[in-house]
Batch of 2 targets.
Target 1
Amino acid sequence: MTVFWKSGLVLPIVATTIAAGGFVAPAAAVEVTYASGVVGAATERFKEIVKSWEEATGNTVTFVPMPASTSDQFAQYRLWLAAGNPDIDLYQTDVIWAPQLAEQFVDMSDVASDIVDASFPAIIESQTVDGRLVALPLYTDAPALYYRKDLLEKYGAAVPKTWEELTETAKLIQDGERADGKGDFWGFVWQGNAYEGLTCDALEWVKSFGGGQIVETDGTISINNPQAVAALELATGWVGTISPPGVLAYQEEESRGVWQTGNAAFMRNWPYAYALGNADESPIKGEFDVTPLPSGGDNDSSAATLGGWNVAVSKYSQHKDAAISLALYLAGPDAQKERAIKDAQLPTIVALYDDPDIAAAQPIVPRWKEVFMNAVPRPSAPTKGDYNEVSSKFWSAVHETLSGNGSAADNLELLEIDLDDLKGSGW
Ligand code: GLC
């Protein structure tokens, strides 16, 4: 039996029992293809991480880079899967996709019991549809408010706890920096493009204002309410004032571009930006820190949207054994540890939050355990196969509002009518 685990790094017990689970290299070496969106250092990191699996099994992996936008990936994958495409063996899947693509993926519950036992139960649950474990978690995601420590100090300002404070402080710093000659400086950058990322940002504004989570866990459509209106009104006021007009086309990487070149006081982004911002060549290395996102209105609790990525094996793969073996390796403790240390990606294996190497390399990881454990899920579970449409209707209504096409109140009222139609007699 060929065992490919480099066990003993951090979780010898988990690693050994997973290895003992009997994942062996197939008799003849094969080439498997892995499709994944590319954000930050994703391509380079993937190639580094799969190397030990390739060496141990003799198999090779071809990486198929996809657009950064999760919405674009979803559209393409849905087409490929509907056509029964055998060319892609594994897909890197967003946390929200499981209910919509479940039938096209292989059930891994029997082979992944060691990973399941070592993981946060809620994350495993999010990838389990009708008792089938359709994707294995690679990392979880919960955003942070990034802020420039040096600039808060320069302007004698505190870390903002509310969106209203953030609005004021961003303006103060932006005005000061521009007066100092930095014409390109902005107060706050975030993700305003019309795509899934805007659903994440806007859900945070709405939920942190006490306006619910678009569709509640029991399936009730809750989005048309005064707190949600107030949240969107505040955010609309940012566009062209503390945030560049171009923010309406920004995804994660565009906001990171402005931030990491030193041209923004605050940024909303996921933990991957922490590792990149502290890289040796980064102009803001050591100058920033992170804090949970603010709360808003009269509400005093903040909200972070739950993100995260998984690996699924296609039902149409002609190399299922090798593909499953690769999925188990990528979701296992060694690969998760490497991703945490190099990219600050939050593990889904519980014990890694106590790992001293991770804490030393990326202090955000242990600090963010509580943030992701309290993160708000998007309504993909209650809306099932309709989630993508629910989300695209939501992000469109928000994008229209931010663009000045209709008021928040009118757009949310129309959204509610649309969602009611979509729901019909039930999701
Ligand atoms: C991050 C999250 C993912 C989310 C995406 C939106 O990649 O992990 O869940 O859908 O951002 O842009």
Target 2
Amino acid sequence: MKKNIAVLSGDGVGKEVSKGAIEILKAVGQQFGHEFHFQHGLIGGEAIDLEGTPLPNETIELCKQSDAVLLGAVGGPKWDQNPAYLRPEKGLLQIRKALNLFANIRPVTTYNALTDISPLKQEIIENVDFVIVRELTGGLYFGKPTGRSIENGEETAVDTLVYKRSEVERIIEKAFEMAQTRKKKVTSVDKANVLESSRMWREVAEEVSKKYPEVELEHMLVDNAAMQLIRNPRQFDVIVTENMFGDILSDEASMLTGSMGMLQSASLSSEGPSLYEPIHGSAPDIAGKNIANPIAMILSAAMMLRLSFGLEAEAKAIENAVDQVISAGHRTADIQRSGRKPVQTNEIIDHIKSALVEDGAISSIMSAYA
Ligand code: NAD
């Protein structure tokens, strides 16, 4: 198989973890006989510095002509005082709109080898396995009007939470499709006791659920959901929610796995290439020190193989290699047990490559799929 992959490394640790994903994909390509071509595009702070905009048109064109997009992370203190249109995060919002990436899929699976480093009790987080389906192109982050003005002599700021029925329908459909292949339960999270947009969201969820009689639908208020994620995360299978609620809940959920550096995501498009990225940001506090955990980015690349290219065995090989390396205790600082020496970013990438190539992660998978 030949595939063109656009790589938007971005800023801070985005560069370090993207390099890791490319190395792992090259290793998988060699082992399984695929040709992956990587082309790099600018986004975020680096694009502002070099091109004067957080998302140059060439980057959008590159992504549209590619089979899939890998994105590292954007942002950093250097650009924090810029006006809104010149902030790195604007590039993220713009690429989501330009590629129509309406569904953000965030699997949350705990590794039993890592339960001891989570701030939560082992019995709470063992065998957690759910997916957050976050709406990505609507809601508060895109609604108009937005901005500041002077009202009756006082500075006033406004943001708008707006959804069209069709936008809600397609994301709820996606959640039910996923639940059908899993434990057949959808938890729709909203704030229907306060927000009109949530009341429409709830109605649409009820309507869509009629097409999936074998899937259970429950509604949960977002404040309760935030509490339930910590109290009993095993109750969830597929959580579907609007843009900002999903943003917050998925960061909270990342702590079930122990670190922001462990959570991958896919942003699916209805028409063109999909985009794959870790859920963490550019982590300026650790950037350039060779200590970032590249696993979220590497697992995002595995999701790309599975969801965009249909390469299930190859995706599984990467996931198995990551599992082997973590179980063997080769861990970056964010997931290392206290008292044990952490490995560096480039070292853990090498361990994962070795697990793929030498330790048989690939051959065992290939025979399973033969
Ligand atoms: P962050 O995710 O960058 O960092 C939060 C914490 O997690 C930090 O302590 C960081 O060191 C740690 N962390 C993150 N990724 C890690 C990794 N791979 N390995 C080990 N530790 C990791 O969030 P933040 O500090 O709130 O934001 C920093 C910048 O990133 C801001 O400019 C923000 O706007 C941007 N941001 C970008 C994205 C994105 O590109 N998708 C997402 C969130 C934040």
